[in-house]
Amino acid sequence: MRKLLKKIRLIKYLYLSWKIMKHPFSFSVRARSLFNFFADYWKYKRLNGNKVFKLEPGDMYPRIYDKTPVTGLDPIYFFQGTWCAKKIFENKPSHHYDVGSQALMVGIISQFVPTTMVDIRPLPLTLPGLSFHEGDITRLPFTNDSIASLSSICVIEHIGLGRYGDKLDDHGSEKAARDLARILARGGNLYVSVPVDSENKIYFNAHRAFNREYVLNMFSGLSLKEEKYIYGDNLESDYSPEKGFGTGLYHFTK
User: Fold this and answer.
1) Could you tell me the domains of the chain?
2) pTM of the complete model beyond 0.70
């Protein structure tokens, strides 16, 4: 039935219009985007035509909100992912372990350095160079001083808030930091990032934010090798509490 309905142009046009117009942009943006989509479609049909490809109304797959003046990205994930990957590539570990970070970043790193990903939620994909180990960041399944290269990017601020199915715990971040430090090997490298702010806060149930002093206190048994801060679209070297919310990137050693 779905294949039959796709062949009826009016139904297809109405369905596409409905999908576009239900997007949470202003009505003027949605209407203009809808008009531009169909204008581009009919303009494309009037080209001489590449006969190798079929162009049918039933196969329309509109992506109409991508005509932006700049490349769309999240500066936090862009900066922290590239920062962490650069650190790992520079240090050239024989094996890297990551706890809870964004799977895309971990997958890319695994194509250059054999990597084990640790998370409470199973990874539904397989990839050469990447292995998975289910584990809780507050009770990591590794012995003391055993991991030479370790990362946990934008993770510990979530622990204990229940957002990802973890148990509610008002000291979840502190426990996570303590266990990361516990398993880090002597001479090893730990890369972490967390939200920072002028004071410690909970943005329930998204994440916590920390001031710099508290972050360093959570990892007080380690030595700070480098720190960077993301404020808006900028990667900076200094913590600036007057700027409010940002993201801190920290490279610790043991």
Assistant:
1) 2-59 (no CATH), 75-253 (3.40.50.150)
2) yes
CA-wise closest residue to 99 among 136, 146, 143: 136
Strand 147-153 and strand 184-196: pairing? parallel
Whether the Cβ atoms of residue 120 and residue 165 lie closer than 8 Å to each other: yes
Could you give the CA distance from residue 228 to residue 193 in angstroms, rounded to a whole number?
9
pLDDT in tens, 123-152: 999 999 999 999 999 999 999 999 999 999
Say how far apart CA 117 and CA 100 lie, in whole Å.
Answer: 7
Neighbours of 54 (CB within 10 A): 7
> Of 96, 132, 101, 99, nearest to 115 (Cα)?
96
Among 223, 203, 194, 184, residue whose Cα is nearest residue 80: 194
**C-alpha neighbours within 13 Å on the C-beta side of residue 152:** 26
Which residues lie across from 223 on neighbouring strands? 253
Classified as helix, coil or strand, 186 is strand
- Give me the phi and psi of 138, to 5 degrees please: -85, -10
